[in-house]
User: What shape does this take?
Amino acid sequence: MNDRSATSYTHGHHESVLRSHRVRTAENSASYLLPHLKPGMTVLDVGCGPARITVDLAARVAPGWVTAVELTDDALSLGRAEARRRNVPNVSFVSSDVHALDFPDDTFDVVHAHQVLQHVADPVRALREMRRVCAPGGVVAARDADYGGFIWFPRLPALDLWLRLYDRAARANGGEPDAGRRLLSWAIAAGFDDITPTGSMWCFATAETRDWWGGMWAERILQSALSRQLVDSGMATMVELKEISAAWQAWAAAPDGWLAMPHGEILCRA
Ligand SMILES: C[S@@+](CC[C@H](N)C(=O)[O-])C[C@H]1O[C@@H](n2cnc3c(N)ncnc32)[C@H](O)[C@@H]1O
Assistant: This one.
């Protein structure tokens, strides 16, 4: 791997981060892909994290097979635990980097990445690699949030600071937090000529979803890899992070609190 592909994952895998990944399902995170899945297909899920989506995909393509990829063994152990918990046998976990996937050409019917390309150093190279391991006529699918497009109410100043700090930290790690709007251009640059671009939104506005999102970020901004990075690099003080944490709690408690996250999606024919 050369330097261009080296990056670090901004959020890390603290419990408060995993809580946000564990509500994900194939239905709420990959609905644009689902009509293209059929029993018997082989799927590669890149950057599977705790593998909630991965295991859903495995259940849909059984008796086909899902291979899930993560950078480290620690991250893979989360996925393995999820597959055991749900008793889904047709999934295996392999460590590999999306910039240099350890699979032969034309191996999979579907190659999928959810919320991954925003974190990698070279998303165009990553998409080329995803295409290389996808069989001709197969599908490369990616979905990413676009942080610059997040909107919320009430407009608490500490939450504006949260977004500015997140943007700085993600870019310092070599990522692109406004990935959603760029997926189509990355796919074109990667050489795809049959691309279906779409968008979709997550919205948190009920007492239950506000409590989950606001409570998760109230903890995450104080305890995750992101908070350590912000303080250690001098981008923020612990006092500011505590203000942001309190603002997330205030937002979650506001009966009119509302937040929307836009996502870009691409379905590319290999
Ligand atoms: C935001 S998480 C998404 C996890 C999962 N896809 C989901 O949506 O629940 C991004 C994941 O991508 C992994 N990742 C980051 N860079 C990667 C790379 N170069 N190759 C493979 N995985 C990577 C991270 O370790 C992290 O678990």
About this structure: The chain is about 40% helix and 20% strand. The two ends are 24 Å apart (CA to CA). Confidence is low (pLDDT under 50) at residues 1-6. Strands lie at 42-46, 65-70, 91-95, 108-114, 134-145, 151-153, 195-204, 258-269.
